[in-house]
Design brief:
Layout: E1 15-18, E2 26-30, H1 48-51, H2 61-72, E3 75-79, E4 101-102, E5 105-106, H3 115-142, E6 148-155, E7 158-159, E8 162-163, E9 168-171, H4 177-187, E10 194-196, H5 209-214, E11 220-227, H6 234-257
Parallel strand pairs: 2-3, 2-6, 6-11, 9-10
Antiparallel strand pairs: 1-3, 4-5, 7-8, 9-11
Helix pairs in contact: 2-6, 4-6
């Protein structure tokens, strides 16, 4: 067994997975599931309060995704370490892969990072996560199974002083087909404000998971953002999981009727 240069033996593996449900087409991915920092990195020089904030992780995303996966009996794959260690939804060559600043927060442990230290983070966290996704999709393809990738994210309600009025957002890049069905379904709930490619947009420059694992394979996919203040409690998380699960099932049926 190779000794880790980053993780102690008692720290979790970088990939959290629930199930490998061949009968469900859905694979739920959570790139920013955790605020955990490997102990060797000494909290990246951040305070305990900072580690609870949105700069460190997508608050509530894993809880919603777990409930959706359970409802749909789907496979869930999540990243076990903070986006500040290395962002698993950025290409490792991107400037934002290991960011030195998030919103207004300086990340001391990411300043003046050596190429070797950056490589270790990639090899021990980024690469295993994406290798796990790749292996699952390869296996499903070999078995002739349909796959729909769902990237679950959450967003802060206030960013750089600007309030976000949407409750959730649906994101896509080149292929709007499945995302369009999700938008139509969720917008039927007149109490929800659902944005389209806002406040973020999905692109090769700003994202990794959907372009590499979904678009490159021609798989149906969608990226979902929910405002974090709306999924801050178990009851809220459960409610949103119901919204998302119902939408996914309805959109699967609508999408595959077209082909």
């Amino acid at each position: 067994m190779t000794r880790s240069a980053l993780l102690y033996a008692d720290e979790p593996a970088p990939v959290l997975t629930h199930g490998a449900r061949d009968h469900s087409p859905f694979i739920i991915l959570v790139d920013h599931a955790s605020a955990r920092i490997p102990r060797r990195l000494q909290q990246l020089g951040l305070s305990t309060d900072d580690l609870r904030r949105h700069v460190t992780w997508d608050i509530g995303a894993l809880a919603v995704a777990e409930r959706v996966a359970t409802t749909l009996d789907a496979t869930l794959i999540a990243q076990h370490y903070s986006r500040l260690v290395i962002d698993c939804n950025r290409h490792p060559a991107a400037d934002t892969s290991i960011t030195a600043t998030s919103e207004y927060t300086q990340i001391p442990g990411n300043h003046m990072l050596s190429q070797q230290d950056a490589l270790i983070r990639r090899q021990e966290i980024f690469d295993p996560y994406h290798a796990h996704i790749r292996a699952l999709l390869d296996r499903r393809c070999a078995l002739g199974l349909r796959s729909i990738l769902v990237a679950q994210h959450t967003m802060t309600d206030v960013y750089k002083g600007e309030r976000r009025d949407m409750h959730a957002a649906i994101l896509y890049n080149r292929d709007r087909r499945f995302a369009g069905h999700m938008l139509d379904f969720l917008k039927r709930d007149t109490g929800l404000v659902i944005a389209e490619n806002a406040p973020y947009f999905l692109s090769d420059a700003t994202d990794y998971t959907i372009p590499v694992h979904a678009e490159a394979r021609g798989l149906a996919h969608v990226e979902i953002e929910i405002r974090q203040d709306l999924v801050s409690t178990p009851d809220d998380q459960a409610q949103w999981a119901v919204h998302i699960a119902r939408a996914l099932v309805a959109c699967e049926q609508a999408f595959f009727r077209e082909f």
